[in-house]
Amino acid sequence: MPDNRSSDPMPAGSLYPNLIKVALRLLWRDWQGGELRLLFIALVMAVTSVTGIALFTDRLERALLLESANMLAADRIVSGRGELPEAVLAEGQSRGLRTAQTLSFTSMVFSDSGNLLVAAKAVTDSYPLRGEVIITEEAFTRGRPIVSGPPPGEVWLEARALPALDIEVGDSVFVGEVELTVSQIIITEPDRTGGSMMDNAGPRLMLNMADVAATNVVQLGSRVSYRYLFASDVMSDLDEFESWFRAQEEWRGRFYIRDVRDESQEVADALDRAESFLLLGSLFAVVLAGVAIALTAKRYSERHFDYVAILKTLGCTSFQISFIYLLVQLVLALFAVIVGWALGWLVHQGILQVLEAVMQIALPEPGLEPYVIGALTALICLLAFALPPLLALRETPPLRVLRKDMSQQKISDKLPYGFGLLGTVFLVYWYSQDLVLTSVLVSSVAGIALFLSVISYVFLRSGGSAGMKAGNAWKLAMTAARRRRSQNVLQVMVFSITIMSLLILTLLRTDLIDEWQAQLPEDTPNHFMMNITRNQIAGIQEFFDGNDIQSNAFYPLISARVTRINGDEPNPEGSLDEEDQGSLTESANLADVELSSEAGSALGPNVASEPAADSDEGRRVRGRLSRRQVTWAEDVPPDNLVTAGQWWGDNPEPGYVSVEQDYAQWLNLSLGDRLEFEINQQTVFAEVSSFRSVRWDNMQPNFFIIFSPGTIDHLGGTYLSTALMQNEQKMLLNDLIRLVPTMVVIEIDALIEQIQTIIAQVTSAIELISLLVLVCGALVMLACVNATLDERFHENAILRTLGAGRRLIMTSLLIEFATIGFLAGLIATIGAEASLFYLQQEVFEQDFSFHYWVWPLGPLIGMGVIGVLGFLSTKGVVQISPLSVLRRLI
Amino acid sequence: MIETRSLIKSVHTTEGLLTILKGIDLRITEGEVVAIVGASGSGKSTLLGLMAGLDGASSGDVLLGGQNFSAMDEEQRAMLRGQLVGFVFQSFQLLPSLTALENVMLPIELKGDSLAREKAQQLLSRVGLQERCHHYPNQLSGGEQQRVAIARAFATEAKILFADEPTGNLDTATGERVIELLFDLNREFSTTLVLVTHDERLAQRCDRIIKLVAGEIASDSDSSREEKVVA
After folding, report:
1. How many domains in chain B?
2. pLDDT tens digits for range A426-477
3. Cβ-based contacts of B89 with chain A (< 8 Å)
4. Measured between CB atoms, which of B55, B91, B119 is closest to A397?
5. Which domain, by its residues, includes B134?
6. What is the DSSP string of B145-187?
7. Which residues of chain B does A8 touch, with a Cβ-Cβ cutoff of 8 Å?
8. ipTM for this prediction
């Protein structure tokens, strides 16, 4: 036997390499033994869901912004009354932005055999900055995209203008004083729907900006709409440019800058809500994965108490133990991040595959950010959820080698929750960047957790007495549930939070999609017809009926102004809601040319073209108190609800008026007030008989003020109606305009179609995110069931050695898990409804309503899922011999 | 080598304060082989744990190689254990996920020695397990596991070896062979050996027998020593 003492003195530098060796060996052996697998999977799930969702939202957001930018043909637009200051264009160019200009006006176009009012638009050579113009040489064929407007000397005309002018491609037309060749038929242009009112006032004619001067149509004082277009691939450049523009005091109220979010409220809302939803989804995914990590790490560390005790007896210091376990976790996390990245990429590819049908655009490549977010999430999850129980290992008393019952007491019980909560707060804030959302979400989850633990503690405590009478398996299950009370309370809590997260997402998803679908149903009218006289109505109705076009009621329109309320000057009070609607009046004043000055207000917010975000309060008030389109009607219009007072009955009497409720509030009106109106230079009196709520976003004619029949009928006015025309019926517009030449048609079909497409895309994305969170939820449940597996194996092995039959044990396991699941489902339902109450009202701006069907379903789902999952995970306890279980656990 | 002064260990139980050791004074010199015997609950494992620095005393001192454990925190105690102490346990306490060789290597590695593998292989040969180096504990018999544990105990050239019921989980014949090995190695390495046992025959082979009754030293075979008795 060699004398070991004579060997070389210990090389001090070898300690850390040796510790690394020990750590890697531990990692490898634990991996082989399967102990780290669930922790690894949980980490991978966290990285996968975050990376996948981040990759997808990153690309989707870029794509949607891009597609939305296509609706503007630019990233930012500057528009305003009259000619725009050159300085704006110069500033944009000096900042490296790409620029273009457009000029919209209405004009008569003449051919040899006809003339037509067109919505003309002159564009510079760089137009469009975003999106494509679709043109064709033959009417009603599939077009080809082109990233330019017509060259000088040529015009492009919309297909239906050709028969109206009796011309073909290649013929020429006169625009003002200049003769131009019709070289292409224009099918769509990117910003067709985002234009001003005059862009919708007839078929499109597009010409080159260079030809405008020669037409002599645009002169000083002409009503035209100028626009500067800006685009850049560097978002920050655009933002800085926008800030610069907004800082120019002298332009405030005259010139406006906007991006796509100002353009269409539906798209903006859909995007905002989808982002909130995706955000919430990834938050839930991460928190659930975090819980799974915490549970698996806790189990892992519990299984390592002995290991650490032995290491300590061998002289390992607490610091060295922390070093070893930290290294194990970091290496594990490293691999988890790599695998998670790969899976996350696959997940987002999967989402894209599913969305292929609705994605009409190529997605831009994602940035590196999603990967960084994924990796950081793994690290934070590890720090917050896994490290506390693992670091608690260092407190293991070495005496445990002699006395098994010794375990570390100092921090393992409470600290992990603190760390986990802290980690959750950090993650939620990091993703949402919203302090309010963070505090509300975290405090509600914490509150619910507390509530849950009290409730489930009480339930499990009282479960025994009822269970005693129900036979052996029931009794066994209930006593087992009570014995593991603290563990079970934790399980119920974890299951509840998991089911709650899934319920919240599912219910939100359903409500959001329902609401979107309800907002723009299939039969939403897509054409507005205005300036119709009373004796033209019958002919138009006949035309619609004859051509199978779905039409709606004709509303009389007349311009009115409130001059006195109960004999006094109106003294309005501003309120939040006023701003939007005020801008309508403003916008209509800005934009219209031939249309009556307030026509826009009757169309509801969606048709508004020029926002007046910068307009000052005084001007807004004057706008509201100035002329307003009013109507009279026998029946309450669709989507209007009488909120106070009474609608005139079957035999309406003249002299009454119904006022939109917010407008009424703004004017300080009460029921019974006597209003004095100025209509066509005549004074009309009416008594306020009801207030109404109006759904402004229903794409229907909506009115602030409606008179009872007979009050103002004799004062003249025109009529307004809407119709749904399918694509193939579009040509009939020419016949209709020929039939009623004075009528103005506003086409919003493209706008509606675009909104519906975007909403369909967002809907699919939401469905997939829900699915991903579902997988995370399943993982948490599995981890949670596994967390008590050792003890169950041990107990049931002892029971079996004492003669308990398999059937008894299996039944009792099923009952125990089903009970836990039922409780968790019930509590989750309560928690979900409570959270939705806040989320729907504050974050998603929806109306909250109870989801009655969830109340029985939640507990049943909990019972079914947890029961089956728990049963399947633990059925092994009766499948392997009790001896091997006992031997393993000694 | 080992000295305890007025060593008291009490624990809080549901029935109040329970004093396990009631003031133990003893001195064990270098190279001595000492058996601590006594009935279950007499406090012998507790005394072993305190002398080995696995636990802290309620009062009194434990000196190991002249250094007072009582004045140290757990980190310092761990370092001192790593330098001076080896263990053999009743339940072997091998790490199940490591092979026999890796189990023996572990304490050598923790000392920062880069020759861990070679030294461990030598020791495993010495205990007759060179063929079983790469077996995991669950692939070894009880006797073999205890031999691996003995190899591990001597791996760091510990000056003091504590053994807690080293034959408690073994049949008589295997237990005999393991004890032979333990004593042989002890002689070779001139280690101080303190073992706790129920086994009368094992105790008789030791230089000195200390009997504990209810937390006090009831008898000490080495009565010539002045320091030993506290009745």
Report:
1. 1
2. 877 877 777 766 776 777 677 766 776 676 667 666 544 444 334 466 766 7
3. 401-402
4. B55
5. 2-220
6. HHHHHHHHHHHTT-SEEEEESTTTTS-HHHHHHHHHHHHHHHH
7. 115
8. 0.85
